[in-house]
Write a structure and sequence with these properties.
Blueprint: H1 5-9, H2 14-27, E1 33-34, H3 46-57, H4 71-85, E2 94-97, H5 99-111, E3 117-122, H6 128-134, E4 138-143, H7 154-160, E5 165-171, H8 183-195, E6 199-203, H9 224-229, E7 230-235, E8 248-252, H10 255-268, H11 274-285, H12 289-310, E9 325-326, H13 331-337, H14 342-353, E10 355-356, E11 358-359, E12 369-372, H15 377-392
Parallel strand pairs: 1-10, 3-4, 3-5, 5-6, 6-7
Antiparallel strand pairs: 2-8, 7-8, 9-12, 11-12
Helix pairs in contact: 3-11, 4-11, 5-6, 5-10, 12-15
The protein binds 4'-deoxy-4'-aminopyridoxal-5'-phosphate and glutamic acid (GLU).
Length: about 400
């Protein structure tokens, strides 16, 4: 038996692979501190758990739901978009998916023909490129430098634009860099996309996790023309500590996109897990103080951990404004320890310092390494202590 060419080309998610490796080592008795996967360490808030339990015991969660999401959840998404983005969307413009990841996967399946191009700023979240190639599209990477705060400019985008360019992915706040585009920057990029009829996939999943006075401006809130050109990707995983529940969604002005994504879901997943949808209704409709509490905890961790990581010999970074990652440039650190390859360096940190991190290679950045600070302060401090000892040895 031969696997398909498609299967052979496909790469695993490096974040999930790094996390699985760390979990396996810990299960085997190794003393590893894992700052790999990007997920809140908090349990899902109790009110959300209770809504899920009620959905189970009342029986409503026993059955298939409509493919694009239960009306109650769509209503909750409409209300949250109105609150956070300032415009009113409609049920037919929304699809609820099995995590934001499946929204992105199915979106590119319905947008791209073979060889269509999608511009992806680097460093990028690990799955974007694979989502595009799984749809036979071509990812076109544009390097956002640390000197420019890991943000791309219209000039850079225009250089790589071709007749085949169908979409651009923007992720602000960014995984892995934590950078946030300002309103002016978004306006420039949005207008460029409108002028050139390029769709913008705006991955807003970290929109509620911004720190120290930084402001998240949703791209789709900037103007009517930009809103129409934008497909919003969002979900409850990060802001509500619900990664395991697998609820995300897409909002598009063009209902044909949503209908086509719904066809894919109807032939693949049928519907997002019923109980999770009821839980997500409570997350979006309930008291938003739970989000603020977790946001404050992440902010405190960032403020404690950032200066400590900046002191590690050879680690160079600027302070992120959002999400929950540090993404230091470790070029100097690698030199100091005699490494030339970021994967080997990441591996040495795992085996010698006993700290599991994610190689920047998976994010298209061979000089960087990612630490997730979605862990308690004691764990974070322990990790930094080990990293420092490793670098000073
Ligand atoms: N986009 C980004 C930038 C992410 O970091 C994640 C986290 N996995 C996702 C999308 C997908 O989130 P989920 O599938 O858990 O909703
Ligand atoms: N987005 C998270 C991360 O980057 C979760 C893992 C994943 O979905 O790949 O670590």
């Amino acid at each position: 038996m031969e696997l398909s060419q498609r299967a052979k080309r496909l790469k695993s998610s490096v974040t999930l692979a790094a996390s699985a490796k760390a979990k396996a080592l810990i299960a085997a008795g190794e003393d590893i501190v894992s700052l790999t996967v990007g997920e809140p360490d908090f349990a899902t808030p109790t009110v959300i758990q209770e809504a899920a339990i009620k959905a189970i015991t009342s029986g409503v969660a026993s059955y298939y739901t409509v493919t694009a999401g239960i009306p109650e959840l769509k209503a909750a998404i409409i209300a949250s978009i109105e609150r956070d983005y300032g415009f009113k969307t409609h049920s037919e413009n929304i699809i609820v998916t099995d995590g934001a990841k499946f929204a992105l996967y199915s979106l590119f399946q319905v947008l791209l023909d073979s060889k269509d191009e999608v511009i992806i700023p680097t460093p990028y979240w690990v799955s974007y490129g694979e989502h595009v190639t799984m749809a036979e599209g071509v990812p076109v990477f544009v390097k956002a430098t640390q000197a420019n705060d890991f943000k791309v400019t219209v000039e850079q985008l225009d250089k790589v634009r071709t007749a085949k360019t169908k979409a651009l992915i923007l992720n602000s706040p960014s995984n892995p860099t934590g950078s946030i585009y300002t309103k002016t920057e978004l306006e420039q990029i949005g207008n460029w996309a409108v002028d050139n009829d390029i769709l913008i996939v705006s991955d807003d999943i970290y929109g509620k996790l911004v720190y120290n006075g930084a402001v998240f401006t949703p791209l789709a809130s900037i103007s009517e023309a930009i809103r129409k050109q934008t497909i919003i990707i969002n979900g409850v995983s990060k802001a509500y500590a619900m990664t395991g529940w697998r609820i995300g969604y897409a909002v598009a002005d063009d209902v044909r996109i949503i209908s086509a994504m719904t066809k894919i879901a109807s032939q693949s997943t049928s519907n997002p897990v019923a109980v999770s949808q009821y839980a997500a209704v409570e997350a979006l409709n309930g008291n938003q103080a739970i989000v603020e509490e977790m946001r404050q905890a992440f902010e405190e961790r960032l403020n404690v951990i950032y200066p400590l990581v900046a002191e590690i010999p050879g680690f160079k970074l600027s302070k992120p404004q959002g999400a929950f990652y540090l993404f230091p440039d470790v070029t100097e650190a690698m030199k100091l320890k005699g490494f030339t390859d970021i994967n080997d360096f990441t591996n040495a940190i795992l085996t010698e310092a006993k700290v599991a991190l994610v190689t920047g290679a998976g994010f298209g950045a061979d000089e960087n390494i990612r630490l997730s600070y979605a862990a308690d302060l004691a764990t974070l401090k322990k990790a930094v202590k080990r990293l420092k000892a490793f670098m000073e040895a």
